[in-house]
Write a structure and sequence with these properties.
By secondary structure, the chain is of the alpha+beta class. Helices cover 24% and strands 24% of the residues. The chain contains 3 helices and 7 strands, in the order αβββββααββ. The strands form 2 sheets. It has a 5-stranded mixed beta sheet.
Length: 140
């Protein structure tokens, strides 16, 4: 079997953690069919967002250069005899937030940490479980 490089392993763990945490808040996120530079397309009701994920186990993260996205998820993994997922942090930032943000994880703004309020701010309120949706003149 081909080896998995540390950078690939760390990046994939971060992406899966973001996908899981967003799902906990009712946002579905899936990778696009082709790699276009976005890690996920996220959906909540009628809201669609492209998400780029930057994962680090260090004190800093790399800001994306020349990449289009709606939301940047910065993941700071805590690693002690394995990855401590519940101790790891996720910040969700818009491109404007990223421009103003420090590349130091310890200096990222607390209000950008993933939370109910932050997810609703970026993706809207949770989609109703059963909602009438008109489709070509029909109501389902």
């Amino acid at each position: 079997m081909n080896p998995i490089f540390d950078t690939t392993r760390i990046g994939t763990i971060g992406e899966l953690l973001v996908q899981l945490r967003l799902f906990e808040y009712g946002v579905q996120a899936a990778p696009p069919l082709k790699d276009s530079g976005n890690d996920f397309i996220a959906v909540n009701g009628h809201t669609f967002r492209s998400i780029s994920v930057k994962t680090t186990e260090k004190k800093t993260y790399e800001k994306p250069a020349n990449r289009l996205y709606h939301v940047l998820a910065v993941v700071k993994l805590v690693i002690e005899d394995g990855v401590l997922l519940d101790s790891s942090s996720i910040w969700l930032m818009t491109p404007d937030d990223v421009q103003q943000a420090s590349p130091s994880c310890s200096r990222l703004r607390r209000e950008h940490l993933i939370s109910v309020a932050r997810v609703e701010e970026l993706f809207g309120p949770p989609a109703a479980e059963s909602r009438e949706v008109p489709v070509q003149g029909l109501v389902l």
